[in-house]
Design goal:
This protein has a single domain, classed as Glutamine Phosphoribosylpyrophosphate, subunit 1, domain 1. It contains one helix and five strands; from the N terminus they run βαββββ. The chain has a three-stranded antiparallel β-sheet with strand order 1-3-2, with helices on one face. Strands 4-5 form a two-stranded antiparallel ribbon. The longest helix has 12 residues.
Amino acid sequence: MCGIAGWINWERDLRFRSQDIIVEKMAETLDNRGPNERGIWISPRAILAHRRLIVVDPQGGKQPMVRENSTDTFVIVYIE
């Protein structure tokens, strides 16, 4: 099992510490769904959090997954 949480705000910059703490607490509520690993990604308009229970692919399954090219950044979190 895994769990995801997030926050999107088009009007306010989410990179300040208070929003980060709130999303960390949101992710903590998912602790029983993913006790092995956690990840948080922060941008000006979105914060994504992931909790993971490692069953397969310990290295390749880390989330949030981030891919960048010369002009764009793509980020996903997902559960199966």
